[in-house]
Amino acid sequence: MRFEWDIEKERTNIQKHGLSFGEASLVFADSRTIYISDPDHSLGEIREIALGTIENITIAVVIFVDRSGNDEEIIRIISARPATNLEKAQYYSADI
Fold first, then answer.
1. Which domain of life does the UniProt lineage start with (predicted)?
2. What number is the average pLDDT over the span 87-91?
3. CA-CA-CA-CA torsion for 77, 52, 26, 1, nearest 10 degrees?
4. Paired strand residues for 96
5. For position 68, what pLDDT does the model report?
6. Domain ranges of the chain
């Protein structure tokens, strides 16, 4: 799996949420990550939400686009932030 993102967007994300996209990519290594479609914000591409842990420490919400194709899995990270208490509860209560 390969990750890509806009460097300027990542800088803004770090300032706003304290989370780099490199850190956020670790959510995809969590076997309990919850994936949710995001049709309300999918205007030109299908956006999805991943809710999972970063190294079993921080629960994060990652907005991304799956750009996989030609036998290569590519995830473009759009934004990332720490999960709210409600989202944490959703993660812990998921029946996986």
1. Bacteria
2. 94
3. -60
4. none
5. 85
6. 2-93
10 Å CB burial of residue 66 (0-12, 13-18, 19+) is middle
The residue with tokens 């999918």 is 42
Instruction: Name which of 21, 15, 19 is nearest 3 in CA terms.
Output: 21
| Assigned token pair, 65 | 């686009």
User: Which fold, 2-93?
Assistant: Nuclear Transport Factor 2; Chain: A, (3.10.450)
Binning pLDDT at 50, 70 and 90, where does residue 94 land? Answer: confident
- Predicted TM-score (pTM) of the model is 0.88
Q: What is the DSSP string of the chain?
A: -EEE--HHHHHHHHHHHS--HHHHGGGGG-TT-EEEE-GGG-SSS-EEEEEEEETTTEEEEEEEEE--BTTB-EEEEEEEEEPPHHHHHHHHH---
Q: Is the pLDDT of residue 20 over 80?
A: yes
Q: CA–CA separation, 31 vs 46, rounded Å?
A: 22
